[in-house]
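Can you give me the bound-state structure? Components:
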Amino acid sequence: MALIVQKYGGTSVGSPERIQAVAERVKRWYDKGDDIVVVVSAMSGETNRLIGLMRAISPEPDPREMDVVLATGEQVTIGLLSMALKELGLEAKSYTGTQVAIRTDSSFNKARIESIDDQRMRADLAERKVVVVAGFQGVDDLGNITTLGRGGSDTTGVALAAALGADECQIYTDVDGVYTTDPRVVPSARRLQRITFEEMLEMASLGSKVLQIRSVEFAGKYNVPLRVLSSFGEGEGTLITVDDEEDMEKPVISGIAFNRDEAKLTVRGVPDVPGVASRILSPVGDANIEVDMIVQNVSADGTTDFTFTVARGEMKKAVAVLEKVAAELGAREVIADDHIAKVSLVGVGMRSHAGVASKMFATLAKENINIQMISTSEIKISVVVEEKYLELAVRSLHTAFDLDAEAA
Amino acid sequence: MALIVQKYGGTSVGSPERIQAVAERVKRWYDKGDDIVVVVSAMSGETNRLIGLMRAISPEPDPREMDVVLATGEQVTIGLLSMALKELGLEAKSYTGTQVAIRTDSSFNKARIESIDDQRMRADLAERKVVVVAGFQGVDDLGNITTLGRGGSDTTGVALAAALGADECQIYTDVDGVYTTDPRVVPSARRLQRITFEEMLEMASLGSKVLQIRSVEFAGKYNVPLRVLSSFGEGEGTLITVDDEEDMEKPVISGIAFNRDEAKLTVRGVPDVPGVASRILSPVGDANIEVDMIVQNVSADGTTDFTFTVARGEMKKAVAVLEKVAAELGAREVIADDHIAKVSLVGVGMRSHAGVASKMFATLAKENINIQMISTSEIKISVVVEEKYLELAVRSLHTAFDLDAEAA
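Here's the bound-state model for the whole set.
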């Protein structure tokens, strides 16, 4: 008998029929003898409806009152799901964030969970009740309703699993797991049975947006086994867990992430003196532009080229900032390129296997794909290539590193 | 400087624009220096939308979970109204029933208020904040969300006014006050400036459904001056208050109520022996049929006729019950008539003025209207007449008792 926390997103509870389907899924787990805590989001479309009402009244709604309004979305869902469970003959009980209580700080719209009172939930579970909790919301010390921000229901699920010491936190979504890469680009991409928290973080931050990064960090921190699976089909999904050193079969590379939404900026002919990187990047940061990869090469004639990437939509703004900086520094010129893409190999196995980088570069060279930038971390190697080569790069690497479904 | 509780119903807050109009009205009172507590209902249509979702999942939704879902309606409105008030530069703060807290018993869907914690509201008012409270809802001792049932927002308003010792509880509706009778029937009907709680109760229960009966009872019990006024126009509305013995100008009759929705049932030739009334009415009550007027006349030949009225929609069901009872009692026959109407004179002045009944009967006789039944109470005289004479009866009585606008 296990204790399972299940989280269902807005699409999974988007209509009375879908809520009934969720109830039936919960019942199947319950009937196996497991204790179940369910976390739900607002029905799809509801949050946008509420935001529309608020915007009609105020261009910048008061943050405290926004949370009062937004929190109703999940409150409706917990009531409806509890009813659906009772229709199936199960005992069920709903809780708002206030009722649990899920204590947060007072940062309205983006509150952080501080503690969770598990007493009521444990009492219900002891009586074999299904506990249904509103995701995304909490309550501060003064009794104010708070929300965790968009996507916060995943975090609620993980936090409840941690507080209850659950055996697993299951995140039901519209995909059936985490894949070696995007199946729309590589048809032979294969669902991973298992991935580590670190790998998932690298995959997620690189564009495989299956889970909210914050909830994965949270799960890693409290060591909560996290499983991503489909709320529409069957299947075991992907288990996200700690690095299991015992697993000798562990592949070198777990997956390939990529991102088209980047642009590359180069300041050429910068005097190669201490502090120059900071003088270039500080004004970029001050302009609220987030920088991703950064590369600087040594240069022979006393100057160097400084290159970094930003989100594609920020390129123009970044160029304006850089033109000014370049003039101040006496740099030669600023070059911008938004026809690039980033491709990254991710895998904890990389740590103990040499030669991943050279194999990656050789594979790309064989396809005549020029590498414009390289950046490495402990479990990731990223390269920037011309955008038109993105699919070719991902497919050839997917095959070279034995990720294709046939090789599984 | 007064403390005013204002309650706005679903139509008054039915759209973002209407919520903004309410905020402007609140601001006008606030700017006069008054302290304001606002109670709001769910936006019109919202409660029905939520009921639709629930019915799609369960034909008889769990009562606890129903209240969880229904309470979101008012929660959305308090957030939106607080935002609208802030847009006008006022400090405002919203409270759910739980947050106030409004303590109730645990009778989901029809909870009764047991106590109200006024601490937070008083602290806000002391800081010149407008306090915005969700109507219709409360919280029980275990932290469960409860609702007071439909129309319960009026009760919330009165209860808050009582707890805070407010100077007045204003109920904003889509009518501009309580009238001497229905203006659609008598164009010369006139708005009453003042009416007593008792009179209002008799008027309300007889069909002038301006206020929820329960909130009037509540206001009378705690002596909270209640004012009915329009949320769309201006004007002073009608003040409902205790009987002011000092007012020498008090009219004998305050208003005329009427009800078309009744049917008359007569059991003829019932043996005139003790216990027969109970033997007739018990099975009617057992069938959940509510009885209104009851008349029994003595009879000469050892039998009597027993007559009572029920809601028109219940007539068929009542006849079926009575046919059976009549057979058991050896009664002659059962006669049913749904072409009737009830007309009632209401007024606390009746207590000290003889001759109201005779003047009423004479007025109707002059118009050749036959009286089928008569029933009296301390501040009310009701008669049943043929339905087609209803308008004529009401108009002639309205004139006879000096209620016409010209006479005001």
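A couple of observations. The two ends of chain A are 32 Å apart (CA to CA). Residues 155 and 215 of chain A are 5 Å apart (CA to CA).
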